Each structure stands twice: as structure tokens, then as C-alpha cells.
Amino acid sequence: MLRTVNRVLLGLVGLVLLVLGGAVLAVGLGLEPPSWWIHDGRHDVLLSQAERTRWRDEGWWWPTVIAVLALLVLLALWWLTAVLRRHRLTEVLVDTGDGEGALLRGRALEGVLTTEAARLDGVERAHAHLTGRRGTPEARLRVRLQPHAHPADTLHRLTTEAVAHAKDSAGLAALPAEVRLRGVKHRAERVS
Questions:
Q1: Model's pTM, two decimal places?
Q2: What is the DSSP letter of 160?
Q3: pLDDT tens digits for range 40-74
Q4: Fewer beta carbons under 10 A from the terminal one: N or C of the chain?
Q5: Backbone region of residue 140 per phi and psi (left: phi > 0; alpha: psi in -120 to 50; beta: other values)
Q6: Both ends of the chain: CA-CA distance in Å?
């Protein structure tokens, strides 16, 4: 969700800046602007004295300006914190059966998943990443396959061995996993 919002906002800001910059450049180079455009010609200023002071004496003007600017600052701060926030799960809540629970370091579970996935036949390299909430973690695995590996077999072994073992050892009811398989580039084998 955040990735989509980030891309849409960046795209909209970029599009607005591109259109406005291109239009100002075109008018500055001598193109005749349309009648509704904010500039009349290449020697026109962005805001005239009358336009800058037009609403100054109205009672609603300054509260509206301050509210809009405050909203823009809050949205920019939300966006910045959302982008900078760590997405890695630091702790996993393990049910101990006594109603208390214990905390398992997220990196430890990631390490176990990575090690077990990398030991499977046909896997050259693996990397695990935990996301979600500490009571309901989700795993993301990136796996690089060796040239002789069969993706379907490797995926089956990943889910039934590595992911299932991590789920059972942490006492989780479920551990949804997203696995991205990628083949290693290799030269063609010579057949004689």
C-alpha cells in the first residue's frame, strides 16, 4: 500500500512540475499563451502586486493559507516517516501455552529460514525477510536457483521443510510466505 501511495504521489508531483515548467518555458521562449493562462507574455511576472495583495484584507484568507500549509506539512511528515520507517519485523510473539508468551528475535527466525532454505538441493543462495505484525508474521524469501534445479520441486521443499519448520518451531498458527525464485544465468552445456 505504501509503495503504491509513494509512487502515485511522486508521479503526480513530477507531472505537475513538468507541465508547469514546460508551459513557463514555452511562454518564455515566445510562444503565445492561451487567454486563460496565468502569464500574458514573456515579460510578465508570476504574481503582480495586485494579485499578491488581493485577498490580504479578507478575514478568511490567512486562516485558509495557514490551514492549507499546515496540512501540507503534516502530509509531508507522514510521507517521510512512512518512507523511513523500518519494515523489518524485529520480534515475533511466541505462544508458550501459559497465557504469557515469549518474544523471539525476528533476525533469529530470518537466519533460520535463510540457512534452511540455502541448504536445500538446487538452491544457490537464499535470503529471508519477516514482515507483518509480531503476532502474525509473514515471510518473504528470495531464492536463487542453481542451473539444474526444478522450480516446482524447490518451491515444494521450501514450503514443506524450511517454512513449515520455522512455523512449528516458533509455535505459530500460520506463517504465510512469499517466495521469489530466480534462476542463475549459466552458459549452455555442450552435448557431444
A1: 0.54
A2: I
A3: 777 777 667 787 777 778 888 888 888 999 999 99
A4: C
A5: beta
A6: 53
